Amino acid sequence: MTVSMYQISIPGIVRILNSISGIIDKAVAHCEARKIDPAVMINFRLAADMLPFSKQIQIMTDQAKGMAGRLAGVEIPKYADTETTFAELKARIARTVDYLNSFKPAQIDGSEDKEIVLKAGLDMKFKGLAYMTTFANPNIYFHAATAYDILRHLGVELGKRDFLANMDGQMT
């Protein structure tokens, strides 16, 4: 059986990005109902040495757009990382989803053996499949789960169904 690099990357990442956007909607409602300043949640860290909610969203979207761009061999859009509101974070997610949805399977498929080099102090070298499965996807899901955990810790009523929801909010 042949596995499509596009099918095992883009649809799942679009789904989790949309789920996190829906989770942000619940955080907004939570703040409004309890008269909480949204900045408290946006800047919250689970531990002093962890990054805040806003940075979790920024890294998650950077990893998603980076994965697609690198696998397709196209320029990756740069975002300024200046979001300070839930609306701005949702707009960043929406921009990333639009970017991911702009790819056709033919742009990603066949990238299994493509050399991917990341500059992060030391050069990190991967083949496309290993990059996607052992680096990009785990990073995306790590930051999505951490964003979820921050909001859950702060009392937003969330469950596993919220994290795993598809675009219309229903489990499939």
* Biggest sheet record: 2 strands, antiparallel
Q: How many separate helices? A: 7
Structural class call reads mainly alpha
Distance between the termini: 24 Å
What is the 3D shape?
elongated
The CATH fourth-level homologous superfamily: dinb family like domain
Q: How are the strands of the largest sheet arranged?
A: 1-2
Return the string of H and E elements. Answer: HHHHHEEHH
Residue share in β-strands? 5-15%
CATH-defined topology: Four Helix Bundle (Hemerythrin (Met), subunit A)
CATH class wording: Mainly Alpha
> What Rg is obtained from the alpha carbons, in whole angstroms?
16 Å
The tally of domains stands at: 1
DSSP strand tally:
2
Low-confidence stretches: none
List keywords for this structure.
single chain; 172 residues; mainly alpha; Four Helix Bundle (Hemerythrin (Met), subunit A); two-stranded antiparallel sheet; 2 strands; 7% strand; elongated
Q: Can you give me a brief rundown of this structure?
A:
The chain has 172 residues and is mainly α.
Which SSEs are present, and which pair or pack?
Layout: H1 10-34, H2 38-42, H3 53-72, H4 86-101, H5 105-108, E1 115-120, E2 122-127, H6 128-153, H7 160-164
Antiparallel strand pairs: 1-2
Helix pairs in contact: 1-4, 1-6, 3-4, 3-6
Structure description:
The model has no long low-confidence stretch (mean pLDDT 93). This protein is 59% helix and 7% strand. It has a two-stranded antiparallel sheet. It has 172 residues and is mainly alpha-helical. It starts with 9 loop residues before the first helix and ends in an 8-residue tail after the last helix. It has a single domain, classed as dinb family like domain (Four Helix Bundle (Hemerythrin (Met), subunit A)).
